[in-house]
Fold this sequence. Notes:
- By secondary structure, the chain is an alpha+beta fold.
- Among the domains are: about 10-85; about 135-295, Rossmann fold, CATH 3.40.50.
- It is built from 13 helices and 7 strands.
- It has helices at about 20, 25-30, 35-50, 55-85, 90-105, 115-130, 135-175, 225, 230-245, 265-275, 290-295, 320-330, 340-350, and strands spanning about 185-190, 205-215, 220-225, 250-255, 280-285, 300-305, 310-320.
- A 3-stranded antiparallel β-sheet has the order 1-2-3. Strands 4-5 form a two-stranded parallel sheet.
Amino acid sequence: xxxxxxxxxxxxxxxxxxxxxxxxxxxxxxxxxxxxxxxxxxxxxxxxxxxxxxxxxxxxxxxxxxxxxxxxxxxxxxxxxxxxxxxxxxxxxxxxxxxxxxxxxxxxxxxxxxxxxxxxxxxxxxxxxxxxxxxxxxxxxxxxxxxxxxxxxxxxxxxxxxxxxxxxxxxxxxxxxxxxxxxxxxxxxxxxxxxxxxxxxxxxxxxxxxxxxxxxxxxxxxxxxxxxxxxxxxxxxxxxxxxxxxxxxxxxxxxxxxxxxxxxxxxxxxxxxxxxxxxxxxxxxxxxxxxxxxxxxxxxxxxxxxxxxxxxxxxxxxxxxxxxxxxxxxxxxxxxxxxxxxxxxxxxxxxxxxxxxxxx
Length: 360
């Protein structure tokens, strides 16, 4: 009989099956019914049979040999089990690895047995993607080059804007002086901010510009929207368009209450500026001053009426004598007053006035 008693570790792939094969020696001779016990009983019967019939003696001898072999195997297996070295740390490592396999299987929608095949697919994809590294590198270099070009152009644009802002501010102060907003100091606050690496680039460049005014001497420049009334905003808008002149592309401009706080000669100046602006733009003006209204090409009147118990606002176009009557009403006289109508007709006929409506 040989002995298998020696120290060894369980192979990783068999750890989950240890209870099955480590204790199989007990099935040979300890458990009931045991294999050796059954074989011993059969051997006893064969030996009695051989005493009766000599022809059965070879069978008894083979059974005896088999019993001896199984007994040796049981003893070796017992020694193997007793000499095996348990390693809890290694068992924990293997169990962790098995848990990792299960998580990977769930992540990739596969079974644990399919992970090897999935690994090969991912390696193939990685190999394919590695071929695009050159393209990505070239794109990165081109992006850095274009960014540098953008920043150079944007910095030059910022410098030009600051110079143009000074000239525009001076031009606006002159325009506003003619619109009864003098003395009025004008300035632009321009903040330049370069975007960090990787951030989107603004089409308008690096600058954030804000128009600031000081309508009264001694007051600091403040954002226009914080200090200007509706009429002042309209006049600043008119001044901006007047300062820029024909350099601006045609557009529709709406001036609401542009005549607030003005009258007399200033109203006439405002009207003339609006008329000049209308040569290159479509200009819509809401006004209560006849000096301004008389310079328009077309007239519309807005009025409220009570219809079926509800107040409604209506806008209707005026033409011919209706235009004269409305200008007369705006002059402060009665529409039926001959003097008011003569004055209104004269305003519509004077140079720059519109005695006849032009085509829109």
